[in-house]
Amino acid sequence: MSITLINSFVVPPEKEDEFLRTWRGTIAHFASAPGFIHARLHRNTGLNDTTFQYVNVALWEDVDSYRAVFRNFTPAGQRIPGVEPHAGLFEVLMEVEPSTVDS
Amino acid sequence: MSITLINSFVVPPEKEDEFLRTWRGTIAHFASAPGFIHARLHRNTGLNDTTFQYVNVALWEDVDSYRAVFRNFTPAGQRIPGVEPHAGLFEVLMEVEPSTVDS
Q1: CB–CB of B98 and A36 under 8 A?
Q2: CB atoms within 10 A of CB B95
Q3: Which of A44, A54, B21, B68 has its CA 20 to 30 A from that of B59?
Q4: Would you call A52 helix, strand, or coil by DSSP?
Q5: Would you call B60 an interface residue with chain A, using a CB distance cutoff of 8 Å?
Q6: CB atoms within 10 A of CB A31
Q7: Backbone torsions φ then ψ of B29, nearest 5 degrees
Q8: pTM of the prediction?
Q9: CB hemisphere CA count around B91 (13 angstroms)
């Protein structure tokens, strides 16, 4: 079963450059791993809730592939003082497409 | 510019049924709104960080479309005591596809 990593990061403003630099290194490692399908890094626009400045949504073929990456690797982004990752593993419960309303 | 809503929900176990019921009502309303493109509700598998039990990732054509929905509507899921939404509006900063590593 494919699995979605949703990693929500609290990143203090003064740590943003360092966070992005290390995240790029981390994702390069992930992108070459067996089972990696796709990742999308989102940046908060500041237009609504700003708890998390960055959110990575990544699709993996299965949880074992995801876990295998960590056997010989610690993501640098998680070691930056002040940066708090929340890396949950999710299944898709519902897909919603646009609908038209009967009037 | 299209915009991604990422809404991360803290949901106490005893509130899950109520949360899902009201979320279905909310999303039905959203799915009929102009500018709504797609939504995907994720459920935490419990295999890693479990801060957020549910995360909705939704794509909208622009921020104005998203905001217009709230003019005459308050999402019920945000009114359940104990349920904490974190609804941030994001732009996609980076798309990552699988790569092959030179050896």
Answers
A1: yes
A2: 9
A3: B21
A4: coil
A5: no
A6: 18
A7: -65, -45
A8: 0.92
A9: 7
Contact A1/B at CB under 8 A: no
Q: Cβ–Cβ of B88/A6 closer than 8 Å?
A: no
CA nearest A55: which of B60, B93, B99? B93
| Coil/strand/helix, residue B32 | coil
Instruction: Assign A1 to helix, strand or coil.
Output: coil
CA distance A35 to chain B (A): 9
**Of residues A45, A54, A90, nearest to B45 (C-beta):** A90
Asked if the A3-90 domain carries CATH number 3.30.70.100, the reply is: yes
In chain B, what are the domain boundaries? 3-90
Burial of B23 (0-12, 13-18, 19+ CB in 10 A): buried
pLDDT digits (tens, 9 = 90+) for A57-73: 999 999 999 999 888 77
B42's CB contacts (< 8 A; 6+ apart) are: A4, A6, A90, A91, A92, A93, B54, B55, B56, B57
* Tokens describing residue A97: 């497409």
Query: Residue B87: its chain A contacts at CB < 8 A?
Result: 48-49
Q: Per-residue pLDDT for chain A (103 aa), expressed as one digit of tens each?
A: 899 999 999 999 999 999 999 999 889 989 999 999 999 999 999 999 999 999 999 999 999 999 998 887 777 656 799 999 999 999 999 999 998 654 3
ipTM value, please give it: 0.91
d(CA A45, CA A52): 10
